[in-house]
From TrEMBL:
It catalyses: L-glutamyl-tRNA(Gln) + L-glutamine + ATP + H2O = L-glutaminyl-tRNA(Gln) + L-glutamate + ADP + phosphate + H(+); L-aspartyl-tRNA(Asn) + L-glutamine + ATP + H2O = L-asparaginyl-tRNA(Asn) + L-glutamate + ADP + phosphate + 2 H(+). It comes from Halorutilus salinus. This is Aspartyl/glutamyl-tRNA(Asn/Gln) amidotransferase subunit B. It comes from the Archaea. Allows the formation of correctly charged Asn-tRNA(Asn) or Gln-tRNA(Gln) through the transamidation of misacylated Asp-tRNA(Asn) or Glu-tRNA(Gln) in organisms which lack either or both of asparaginyl-tRNA or glutaminyl-tRNA synthetases. The reaction takes place in the presence of glutamine and ATP through an activated phospho-Asp-tRNA(Asn) or phospho-Glu-tRNA(Gln). Residues 466-479 have a biased composition (Basic and acidic residues). Pfam families: GatB_N, GatB_Yqey. Belongs to the GatB/GatE family. GatB subfamily. InterPro entries: Asn/Gln-tRNA_amidoTrfase_suB/E, Asn/Gln-tRNA_Trfase_suB/E_cat, Asn/Gln_amidotransferase, Asn/Gln_tRNA_amidoTrase-B-like, GatB, GatB_C_1, GatB_Yqey_C_2, Gln-tRNA_amidoTrfase_suB_CS. NCBIfam families: gatB (TIGR00133), PRK05477.1-2 (NF004012), PRK05477.1-4 (NF004014). It is an enzyme of class 6 (ligase). One of its GO terms (biological process) is glutaminyl-tRNAGln biosynthesis via transamidation. Keywords: ATP-binding, Ligase, Nucleotide-binding, Protein biosynthesis. Residues 328-471 form the Asn/Gln amidotransferase domain.
Length: 479
């Protein structure tokens, strides 16, 4: 036995498609603040005799994703019943896709530590979300009883399945993040919605080229969870193998609180699901509309364009484009100010302040923010006062330029600066003497005085210059 382990990971990433109605009925998907079991009908409750009707918008969204992932989009796609018994599934089967999924054979390029890796996409198929189980008294392991809410039941899901091409937990995170960015650009997914993205992470260790058994960690709700669960699972499996043991093929549960995975059940096999064709839904032909489904500029393309068009660095371009809303904001701002300055203000100042407040870029009006950056660009506002105005604007939810006016933050004019400088000289004869006597450091004290007089609105470098001019003039007069 050697220590020559290779980590093999494949992901199944389920996302809710952001449609107004459910996958097979017209119940609203806007149930987040609703009472349990109020967004239901005979179809999504799975009552006998109820007939599903496919949501056209969901299919269009699925095609959009398929195109963005370079998949082949089937001309004819079919739905199947995937049978299993669980209380979140009132019909005892989930309508899913089996041997004729809408999207197949695609790819996704992710970058990990500045290196591009291509991950093959096996398929991205449509299905319906089950209801949600509410484990009373905490987690699935500890609660005494469970309630079920069918509001979620029937929400459109797209399951993207990668080939086992992923080699580390960090790369798995990059895959999930990259896919999420793309989905946001495609406008098919609401990332802010709790539980809208769930990952099943499959992992095995091959040793000396021999494939090991895989475990599947189900239902991980966040990218952070994906990394933690996989790191735990990789270590657990390696330790077993090192001790000469075996990894059991099984389904595991990720406990987010404890950061561990625990056995849930033996991995079901395909035959356990007794897949059979959903006879209530006819074969779906995509030929008539699939060519009309357009794909907008995607994060990678936009990043490359930002680099070429605006001359920003790779790193900044990445920061600006990872979220569509941020990229849009940047382009709005750089219409009126220098793109480099706009990049600094969006990628550094704005994102930092938003991050600090746990706020979303959506809450910022691009025109109002651009007006602030314009003032800085025209030297009418110092950087520091610009940041002060931005902070107050975010805290008080007001236009930043209003704050600038209210607090009188505008940069001092040349005349104001000269006047404040003369005052400072009059009021501080000792410092003046020190400077004239050769103590150059005394100038810093005087600069500080002028800054105080102008309420921080003068530019320190200009003040320094004006002070030297004035004082050197006196030196000559005296001398
Ligand atoms: N040896 C392996 N190690 C790690 N991952 C693997 C390995 N073999 C396959 N996988 C991954 O397992 C996943 C299989 O997903 P798929 O949905 O096809 O089947 P399933 O997990 O059996 O079914 P279900 O949808 O019920 O979970 C893919 O992401 C694939 O890349
Ligand atoms: Mg699957
Ligand atoms: Mg699976």
């Amino acid at each position: 036995m050697t220590d020559d382990f290779e980590v093999v990971i494949g992901l199944e990433i389920h996302v809710q498609l952001d449609t107004e109605t459910k996958m097979f009925c017209s119940c609203s998907t806007d149930y987040d603040d609703a009472e349990p079991n109020t967004h239901t009908c005979p179809v999504c409750l799975g009552l006998p005799g109820a007939l599903p009707v496919v949501n056209k918008r969901a299919v269009e969204y699925a095609v959009r994703v398929g195109k963005a992932l370079d998949c082949e989009i089937r001309d004819e796609t079919r739905f199947h019943r995937k049978n299993y018994f669980y209380p979140d599934l009132p019909k005892n089967f989930q309508i899913s896709q089996y041997d004729a999924p809408i999207n197949e054979d695609g790819s996704l390029v992710v970058s990990v530590e500045d290196e591009d890796h291509e991950i093959r996409i096996r398929r991205a198929h449509m299905e319906e979300d089950p209801g949600s189980l509410v484990h009373k008294g905490g987690s699935i392991e500890r609660s005494n009883y469970t309630l079920v809410d069918y509001n979620r039941s029937g929400t459109p899901l797209l399951e993207t399945v990668t080939e086992p091409d992923i080699r580390s937990p960090e790369e798995a995170r990059a895959v999930v993040d990259t896919l999420r960015e793309i989905l946001e650009y495609l406008d098919v997914f609401d990332a802010s919605r709790a539980g809208a993205l769930r990952v099943d992470a499959n992992v095995s260790i091959s040793q000396d080229g021999e494939t090991g058994n895989r475990t599947e960690v189900k239902n991980i709700g966040s990218t952070k969870g994906v990394v933690r669960a996989l790191r735990y699972e990789v270590t657990r499996q390696k330790n077993r193998l090192k001790r000469g043991g075996d990894v059991t093929q099984e389904t595991r549960h990720y406990d987010d609180d404890r950061g561990v995975t625990v056995t849930l059940r033996e991995k079901e096999e395909e035959k356990d699901y007794r897949y059979f064709e959903e006879a209530d839904i006819p074969v779906l032909r995509t030929t008539e509309f699939k060519d009309d489904v357009g794909v907008p500029e995607l994060p990678r393309e936009r990043r490359d364009r930002f680099r070429d068009e605006y001359g920003v660095s790779d790193e900044v371009a990445e920061k600006l484009t990872s979220r569509k809303t941020v990229a849009d904001m940047y382009e709005d701002v750089s219409e009126s100010v220098d793109p480099q300055l706009a990049a600094t203000w969006v990628a550094d100042e704005l994102l930092r302040e938003l991050n600090y407040r746990d706020a979303d870029v959506d809450t910022v009006d691009a025109q109002e923010f651009a007006a602030l950056v314009s003032l800085v660009s025209d030297d009418e506002l110092t950087d520091a006062n610009g940041v002060e105005a931005l902070r107050a604007a975010l805290d008080e939810d007001r236009p930043p330029v209003d704050i600038v006016d209210e607090r009188d933050l505008r940069a001092a004019t040349e005349d104001e600066t000269v006047e404040a400088t003369r005052e400072a000289i009059e009021e501080n004869p000792d410092a003046v003497d020190d400077y004239l006597g050769g103590d150059d450091g005394a100038i810093n004290f005087l600069v500080g005085q002028v800054m105080q007089k102008t309420g921080g609105s003068a530019d320190p470098a200009t003040v320094n210059e004006v002070l030297r001019d004035e004082l050197d003039g006196r030196k000559k007069q005296e001398g």
